[in-house]
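no rush on this but wanted to send it before i forget. theres a chain ive been looking at and ive put its sequence and its fold in token form underneath. i want to understand how the tokens follow from the sequence so walk me through it. thanks a lot i owe you, the record is right below:
>
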Amino acid sequence: MDTENLLVEIARKGLMVDVDIIKEAIKREDTPKIILEKFDHFDEISDKWFGIHALYILGLMRSKEAFEVLKKLIKENDFGDWTTEELCHIMANFGGEFYEEIEEIVMDRSYGIWNRDAAYRALLMIGSSEKLVELTKKLIREADKDEEIELICLLIPRMLSLRNVDIYRMCKMFVEKVGGCFPVFHNNELDEMWKEGGEKERKKDLWMHFSKENLCYLYKINYGKPKIGRNDPCICGSGKKYKNCCWKYFH
């Protein structure tokens, strides 16, 4: 099966995609190119699940081509909660060799604050704290517009996790200057965050997205429990009876 037809199969599966097909797609060098070219069509026939799966596929590929396509997708599409909750982990999976590329997203105002927030969080997970300290100072100094101020407000708890005294002082001055902002409205709250070490995140295993347990969880919160009998074919397409396959994840 060629790569385009392989990706068509992933799209037709919708949410309940087969992990073996994902593994095969990740092996194909032309997967990023075809994802970009056919993205709108594939996303439409998949009830919008192809786009989400595609982000994880690209993150697992960890190639230059995959990262370039990821950049275009997040810039041109709104992935909603997936941006705020999962994109940072997808970016972080590319690793330290993509540090500069991820840093560019943080500094590029055309990406919007949520993509830039995710990119900064990815850098925190990757490491290289000395570089990130300098980037953080630059972000705070250059926050001259409402959107930039909003971004700094989002990032302050993460900035404090760097445990850098200069950044702590700059954050205090920033909060005083703007008169408080979510999630830090007053300097006493910032002081408390500093004492607690700021907000820290750990990289997730991207393969967990494609686990049956997770896909069934997503199915349940988006569609409810499957309206099929215990002896009917399972919704995941395994060929097994529902009671012998994914039933346990819904009950």
Summary: The chain has a mean pLDDT of 93. The longest helix spans residues 31-45. The chain is about 65% helix and 0% strand.
